[in-house]
Request: fold
Amino acid sequence: MEPQEEKSLLDTIEAQAQRAAIRKRALTARETAPHARRAAWEAAIMRHLDSLVAQLAPRVLAFCWPFRAEADCRRWVERWLDGDTARIAALPVVVGRDAPLVFRRWTPGMELALDQHGIPFPTHGEALTPDVALVPLNAFDARGYRLGYGSGYFDRTLAAMRMIAVGVGFELGRENDVLPQAHDLAMNWLVTEAGVFPAERG
Reply:
């Protein structure tokens, strides 16, 4: 191995270790935050989503079932659906380890199956392309880059589908830099309890 290649490999390994540490720190902070405090943050996030989603005006809106103390958008999505019968909500479905996500229609009270992580998903229905996707944030930076759980599902999905990505999470996950990899794609918007932020470009 050439010295430059060896240095590049070492830099990559170091960046991956740093990203793992950032992810772990953000998850620990979120999961140990008092329930009442997290509930207050969620309420603020939902108010901010009201204004942003009204501005974006999607017909098909994707969201994620809450996992590991993520912001719970389910009741907000139900209210959004009640506002117009033409609106459609969708949940992501994992169809393959290295494949983009598929989105299927979700309606309140419908029967769902559980994936390998215990996350509910619709087993039937046509594949939809959301206009807007609410994407959970573990850690994130002002440029809109995020750390999920390391599987890369949303990066592959955003590369395959044209949609507006809205990162949704708590300020305790905000970092100066989450050290994005070359294939990582930034969110268009960030929504936290502190407000609505367009991703900083450049």
User: Anything to note?
Assistant: The mean pLDDT is 92. The first strand starts at residue 60 and ends at 62.
